[in-house]
Amino acid sequence: MSHSHSSRVQKHIGDPISEKPAVDQEFLEEIFNDIQSDFRFDHELNGCLNCGICTATCPAAHYYDFSPREMVQLLWTENLEGIYDAMQEKIWACAQCYTCAARCPFKNSPGGLIMLMRETAIKHGMESAKSVLRPFSRVMLKLISTGNQLAPDMITPDHFPDWGPNISKVDAPLKLLRKAIPMATLNTTATAWEVNLKTSIELYTIWEETGVLDQLETIDENLFDVIVDIMDEKREDLEDWEDEQEDENDE
Amino acid sequence: MADKHDGDERFTGHGAEWRDSNLSQEDAQVATAWVEQKIDRRSMLTNKDRVEDVRDIMWQLEKDGEIVVHRIKDEHNPVVVKTLFGWDKKIPTNQLWHHKSCGQCGNIPGYPTSLLWLMNEMGIEYLDETDQTSCTAWNYHGSGIGNMVSLAAVFLRNFHQAYMSAKAMGLPEGHFYPLVHCGTSFGNYKEVRGYLLHSAELREQVKNILGKLGRLVDGKLLIPEEIVHYSEWVHVMRGEIAKRQVVDTSKIRATIHPACHVYKMVPEDVVYDNDVLGGNRVAVSTGIMEALGTNVIDYSTWYDCCGFGFRHIISEREFTRSYAIDRKIKVAVEEANSDIMIGHDTGCITTLDKNQWIGKAVGKDYELPVMADCQFAALVCGADPFKIVQLHWHASPVEKLLAKLGIDWDEKKAGFEAYLKEVEAGNQENLYDPRKRITSGPGYKRIEQK
Amino acid sequence: MTKPILVVGGGPAGLAAAHSLSALGKKVVLVEKEDKLGGAPILSGYAKLVPSGEWAKDAIGGMVKRVEDSKMIDVRLSTTVSELSGDTGNFTAKLSSGDEVNAAATVMCTGFTHFDSVNKPEWGFGTHQDVVTTTQVEQMISSGKGVRCPSDDRKPKRVAILLCVGSRDRQIGREWCSKICCSVSANIAMEIREELPDCHVYIYYMDIRTFGLLETKYYWKSQEEFKVKYIKARIAEVTSNGEQLIVKGEDTLVKRPITIPFDMVVHAVGMDPNVDNRVLSESFDVDLEPHGFIDRADSYGVVGATSRDGVFVAGSATGPETIDDSIAQGKAAAMSALECIQATK
Prior knowledge:
The structure holds 3 protein chains of 3 kinds. Chain A has helices at about 5-10, 25-35, 40-45, 55, 60-65, 70-75, 80-90, 100-105, 110-125, 125-135, 135-145, 175-180, 195-210, 210-220, 220-250. Chain A is an all-alpha fold. Residues about 1-5 of chain A have low confidence and may be disordered. By secondary structure, chain B is an alpha/beta fold. Chain B has 2 domains: about 55-230, Glutathione S-transferase Yfyf (Class Pi), Chain A, domain 2 (Up-down Bundle); about 245-425, Rossmann fold (3-Layer(aba) Sandwich). Chain B is about 40% helix and about 10% strand. Chain B has helices at about 25-35, 55-65, 100-105, 110-120, 135-145, 150-165, 185-200, 200-210, 230-235, 240-245, 260-265, 285-290, 310-315, 315-335, 345-355, 375-380, 400-405, 410-425, and strands at about 65-70, 80, 90, 95-100, 125, 175-180, 220-225, 255, 295, 340-345, 370. The longest helix of chain B has 18 residues, at about 315-335. Chain C is an alpha/beta fold. In chain C, strand 4 (about 80-85) and strand 5 (about 90-95) form a beta hairpin. The interface between A and B is large, with 86 and 103 residues.
């Protein structure tokens, strides 16, 4: 599905008057190859004649120096330095609403291409990815260790001062309010719902098998270490329980 | 249209060469007939040679023996709806497996409880269990951590569990059909399904992983016949829901915020209904609000997103709240004079609800209550605004809406505070038998069926 | 040789084919499904044609009269062909009227269908009254009524024409260029400016394809003489704030998204394959090409050949086509029909 690297990447044409230090050409090519070798690339980029419908409908373009059309053009024209520059900041402006993809007459997916660029930024541990993701680490810790991305105890006035002084309009302890929710799975505070121990181990296995933990290690080593400790413990818990079951069955 | 253009108003723009074509009334009718032929409005697109329907690939793969399809059967009481291009989509209405949303459960718990309450009112059989994870797509779109293989494996793991879940109660596999609560999950799962059906390589990778987890059916991947969003269930049940309405809503002016990941992602799979907005816009939410008798009002930024942005709501908050206030809330209030904004997705409702308070700091105090379609439906069908609809978690001024509906906020709040004492004493109520929530692993006990 | 030639469709191509054959002394049966001849220019009430500038009623009307007056042409209105059997020299066409026609050859001039803008709901047609199509504007002009906003009959002060509605759009499976809409839109823009000199007209485009000599007559003229503004931007959505239409686009030169109010938005609708093409393909036993138009089997040898010997095709049945070219193709297909009858003698 993907094209061979050598046929795709041309000798790069840099900006002759740029004062920026040139990034090593091989590195630029490696980055582009990582983006375009994803099997989604040729689904998401079919051509572009600069009609601008993507930017017209882009929420991020209203507030940032960001244009999905520009991103598509950089990839389509294989502007390796431009791609690298965009990955320093611009790609993180995209709100991932995929309105661009729903509108493009070529059926490109600029939002999807942004994800390929973000994945590549993470793979190479780019500084932009690290700094952008620092505030996101709470979500990732929760997700990777429990299988839930968000939990009631993450939403406090300390973390969201702009959401107002009260998280609940009934003044009572969080634990009690959660207990009063008439769904037994939701009587939790540390996860959005009660996640079966076996389930979180299964999810963790998926993380291991799909290289997600490697991504995490590249971006945030401390977070990675914390998660590995938590999950090792959980695995032991499950193994203990399984042993108990066997014992019971033997009896 | 009445002809007001006789005499000097007559069109004379073309000078001497111009001649009246004198189209008769009938000729004019013939001339515009094609515009009015709306019987099969998207007829040209039902031709699948023109736009691909991935479900056709799915049926072929099943025929080739490569996958197993989790079918929607008669026992699921499916209702057939039309999608954007006039294709059919089956919406199961009974024996549903709730695929919960972490943002809803963590943040807007009245969202799922209202849905389950409506199902109880209608005697719908369902399962809400602990063996499920988030779809992980919020994290993926926000951070870039994750990849197509991980997303696909999570999708198929959760849907495999939905397929197997009934065995814990001694019922056959496939008994429960998954109903996806979150719009992000719904969009993500549909996109992932498309890639899975197109790419043999991806199927192979995911199959290896699911094999290790023991999550294959006869050694094959299990793919659901349809991916179904709860808002689609609400839409097809809207007549039944409206029958149970006890609160008059005819004075309510509602605006709808349609969710990007619900109707813009994989748009060919989205419900359009000729009876709702002329079939020109996504039918869910508007359909139920009209069935309940509210006045649904259009506004110029209807197509805009909410500003959630996945990572923006966490770390680019200035963007999120500016977008939510200036391009959605403000417009709905100033243009549509809206009493409530209704959504059908987790991120949007969080964004639009929570980000209004800060507007006061800059004089943008629009005070627009925000909630999900199913919460509004439960409320006007008589559900308790606190115990069931859980409106105390909403930051937007839902009190205002309740006053307009004739529901006494303070009285209900006092009732809820009394109930909290009962909960403290261990007497909490549940929408279903809590033992059912564990279907295997630690804590599982077989419940005998009646 | 006394068998007539069957011509199906009474639009520009069919009228030209029928006339040419009759002028050469051949009998023709002309079958038309509507109750009058003239095809889209007459049935849809077009105003002045591109590029002649003549009124459709005069130009195509003249062609209709010529056919109606001919003793060699047997016109069957409100009639369709339900089955065509036989071979070159001896076709039998069953008609919806119950009649049968024995014909030596068949020329299909079955035309196209205007793109139905409801298939592109985000551009507001069907939701907002003041979103109209180029066809409707043609009718406003040809009827003498003038260009008015349908919602309240006011004269628009700002009109946006959106190009490529139902053309060049993979989202809805219409990858083809409809060829004529750029020139037609420029023509309409000039007509609006002529009638309503205070009205500003903007054309939103991805490319302008006023091909060949149309470049001077439409593209340049509309700008230099009529001050029509061309903006390179494909519009994302058309909504309403309750008072005016709101159009969302990108100013691609300054790379910023823009939101612009308009009184009227005009969809330059493209040319779809005839909605009946699947039925036609079966009853005439001819192949369709991948977009759904009638397939041309041969470009150079036998002009207008279809996949079936003795059955020829002309005009917009084969793909988006101009009126002038449809007429030329009608004549060419008529000539091919004569050649093939000659060869089987």
